[in-house]
Amino acid sequence: MILRQSCVRHGRTALGISARTCSRSASSVSIRGEPASDETPRRRISSRTYSTSRTSDTIDHPTPKAQQADQLASESEKQVSALGAEVNTLSQTSRILDIDDLTGSKKVADIEIEKPTLARKTASTRAKTPRWPRDPGFVDAWKKERQNPHEVERFFAYRAINRARGTDSSANRYDPKKLLTQPPKPADLTLPMLLANQCHLGHATSLWNPSNSGYIYGVRDGIHIISLDVTYAYLKRAAKVIEEVARMGGVILFVGTRPGFRDIVVNAAKEAKGYHIFDRWVPGTLSNGQQILGKCAVQVVDLKDNKLEEYDEALSQGKHQVMRPDLVVCLNPMENKVLLHECGVFTIPTIGIIDTDANPTWVTYPIPANDDSLRSVALVAGTLGQAAKEGQRRRLLEAESGRETYSTQPAKHSLDLLNTLIAMDPQERSEQEESSGS
């Protein structure tokens, strides 16, 4: 009697012969090494402990279908063995081939095993061989034809299904560049997003400003941790403020003078249709703006942001009054104390990122966050830019319906006076200026 045992560890089947009798007749029972006289000798079973079993080994009189199944199984084993030998040969060959052979025009499958015995290429020949995909004449050793088209089709079909379900890992993967190209809107802001962009990291405890005690969550490894709940609430409030300023047609100025802030400031100002400074704040830009900004180009637009060319001649002479911003967003208040002082003198509201070493009373609307991380600053500036963009959209929508969100009479009155002064003779103009001064 043949026993069939299964190995739990290896998952294989072990065969053995037992002398225990079955319900069959005693004459049909065979003992190992002593076959019955009325039966032909059975095929000898391999002595290997974990040999693969066959159907003919377990059946006394196998049917043709069983024999055909055994033949197919043996052919499959031969194919697997041949494939394994080929893989081992290719892996051993690829270890000793240099990179020039792999990126050359010769296929890896055509490389013989005796390839390592060939002479090494000279420096001149190696220099002529295209080694990179951008080089002309480059031929990839692993062509797409070698890939299984069915597997490629299954991969893209599975990816399309996951993308439709919203579970595609490649679509949900975090990309820091999206903070510049696709900044989040205030409605999409979440606490995990603030945490992922390092908004909670403060400075060392030795640099702590006591005015920030209400914004600090705790201490970790000698560093203050900013409470993201407070950051979330204050950022939402600042976004609401900048949205209303943009809806009312106010002038918004973004300032960030640290290295690496250039793209962040420019993109945020572009979204908000505002202005930006990323190089250096010139002292006196607000207090002495007529001398510093008097010769800058200026244009007049209507409620729908259409340019009015009738005032170009008057504005080109540099005698117009310089306008001050209605809101200033400062991304690094520690390096722009002069800017904040000038804004305080002229009662210009400010929004600033306040770290644990800064004084929150310097700005009107503080945002407790990490001002040293580009990711944190990009998140805050991008959110404010998106909020201002929404305010501009609402303003243009109301202008299309005929409603004014702000009064244009003061600006129009000033421009009319400017045209009148320019049309006067120089003598009359000097007399008018003297009379107005007295």
From TrEMBL:
Pfam families according to UniProt: Ribosomal_S2
Protein keywords: Ribonucleoprotein, Ribosomal protein
Recorded superkingdom: Eukaryota
Keyword Ribonucleoprotein recorded: yes
Biased composition (Low complexity): 47-56
Spans annotated as Disordered: 24-65
SUPFAM superfamilies, sorted: Ribosomal protein S2
GO BP of this protein: translation
GO-annotated molecular function: structural constituent of ribosome
Similarity field: Belongs to the universal ribosomal protein uS2 family.
HAMAP family (alphabetical): Ribosomal_uS2_B
PANTHER family documented for this protein: 30S RIBOSOMAL PROTEIN S2 PROKARYOTIC AND ORGANELLAR, SMALL RIBOSOMAL SUBUNIT PROTEIN US2M
Protein name as catalogued: Ribosomal protein S2
Organism: Exophiala mesophila (Black yeast-like fungus)
